[in-house]
Amino acid sequence: MEINLNYEELGTGRPLILLHGNGESHEYFGAQITWFAEERRVIAVDTRGHGKSPMGTAPFSLYTFADDLRDFMSAHSIPRADILGFSDGGNIALLFALKYPSMVDRLVLNGANLNFFGLTFKTAAMILAMYIKYSVCAPFSEKAAKNKALFRLMVKEPRIDPDELKSLRMPVLVICGSHDMIARRHTRLIAKNIPNSTLKILPGDHFIAAKTPEAFNIEVERFLKETEKHR
Asked: Is the pLDDT assigned to residue 230 strictly greater than 60?
């Protein structure tokens, strides 16, 4: 069932859709919205159950979020777009590109992963511990139930076989921090299996777009300009 997703839109021109990470909202991209809106139509979306978007009744899943994006683009007369996704937003962008490749011009994957085992050991242990904690508390607390649903996304999803990435034909920028929550070997695996991909590792942690926005934006802008003729 379709839902009305909250979003912020700024600028005109070629559409660039921004997808935030787990437990966040479109506000994460404050430094990207104004930067890229100088030359593009930037649309930063709150995914289902995040920010000001409703939870709805469909399964709370990255796969549902990918279908939500298809519905959102259709409702806003966006047949194709460049998509930049961070963390779980990157996972949604990847799932979307695999299922609806004709709707994606170019893809920017920032700190994405194919499965739970793509996380660093320390990060995976922390997330698993929190998921167990909230699972125990969920029957007694609405807040714990919501947190359980959020942590479930990181533990159970996505489930992407690296070989699936070989079907992607659009230009893809795989970008992460040098001390990311995603294991370096896993990020390299993603880039290696996407035929037309560029890998960029910037100094910093998982949150480079927010903490070092200028360096991040410059790399993304360079990628978009170098692949501008792609349709």
From this structure: no
Q: Which domains does the chain have, with CATH numbers?
A: 7-115+159-226 (3.40.50.1820), 117-157 (no CATH)
For 9-19, letters b (16+ CB in 10 Å) and e give bebeebbbbbb
Query: pLDDT by residue (tens digit) across 60-115?
Result: 999 999 999 999 999 999 999 999 999 999 999 999 999 999 999 999 999 999 99
| pTM exceeds 0.85 for this model | yes
104-110 sheet: strands from edge to edge = 7-10, 41-45, 15-19, 81-86, 104-110, 172-177, 197-202
Q: What is the pLDDT of residues 154-192, one digit of tens each?
A: 999 999 999 999 999 999 999 999 999 999 999 999 999
